[in-house]
Automatic annotation (TrEMBL):
It comes from Paenibacillus tyrfis. GO terms for biological process: regulation of DNA-templated transcription. Keywords: DNA-binding, Phosphoprotein, Transcription, Transcription regulation, Two-component regulatory system. Residues 1-111 form the Response regulatory domain. This is Transcriptional regulator. PROSITE patterns: OMPR_PHOB (PS51755), RESPONSE_REGULATORY (PS50110). Residues 121-222 form the OmpR/PhoB-type domain. GO terms for molecular function: phosphorelay response regulator activity; transcription cis-regulatory region binding.
């Protein structure tokens, strides 16, 4: 829990502890990054307004080394703010003022989504080995190099790759990747697809893997050129 207001930290962590979670607290971005170096953490609740650096910057630094889920607390409500947060790797938002019960519910939902599903194979390879997914390790490789994906990006890729050529609507992807309790709109899926293409596609503007089905949704083409 990263917030410079002690009262907010106390209330939120109290609710999380009642749910059985072990909690750690930081009052600044630098302190939070130090904690993440020392501790095994499953999720970060991150306020955007911190005294030493922005929450966005903390999130960027987390994403350089980890796909750790990040739940952002923010008073910013514009669509651009949400898109910016998603583009740097936030998994969800809670707007201030908020209910601690809502935060606890979002934490449960995010952790539930990021757990391993029943898997079809330990290794999935596409494009002659150009793209490889190691499902047990939750690792993705492009041309032999590891790709740093957020939990939602990984879940999206795995959902599509396990069903090659099947068209998923945006609503179906919201349900499978973001969960029933997601309160955003389908444009969130488009942003995740855009981010994922930037990371796994040889030419993101001419995707070989995640293909748009106009008027319907997205499908995984398996890297087969038309």
């Amino acid at each position: 829990m990263v917030d410079d207001e002690a009262k907010i930290r106390d209330v939120v962590t109290s609710y999380l502890q009642k749910d059985g979670y072990r909690t750690l607290e930081s009052a600044s971005g630098s302190e939070a990054l130090d904690v993440l170096e020392r501790e095994a953490v499953d999720l970060v609740i991150l306020d955007l307004m911190l005294p030493d650096m922005s929450g966005e910057e903390v999130c960027r630094r987390i994403r350089l080394r980890s796909s750790l889920p990040v739940l952002m607390l923010t008073a910013k409500v514009s669509e651009n703010d949400r898109v910016t947060g998603l583009s740097i790797g936030a998994d969800d938002y809670v707007l201030k003022p908020f209910s601690p019960r809502e935060v606890a519910a979002r934490v449960r939902a995010i952790l539930r989504r990021t757990q391993d599903d029943a898997l079809l194979a330990d290794r999935m390879a596409f494009g002659g080995g150009e793209l490889v997914i190691l499902t047990l390790k939750r690792e993705v490789y492009k041309d032999g190099d590891p790709v740093a994906l957020t939990p939602n990006e990984y879940k999206l890729l795995l959902t599509l790759a396990r069903h090659p050529e099947r068209c998923f609507t945006r609503d179906e992807l919201i349900e499978k990747v973001l969960g029933f309790d997601f309160e955003g709109d389908e444009r969130t899926v488009d942003q995740h697809v855009k981010n994922l293409r930037q990371k796994i596609e040889p030419v993101p503007k001419a995707p070989r893997y995640i293909v748009t089905v106009y008027g319907a949704g997205y499908r995984f083409a398996g890297g087969v050129l038309p």
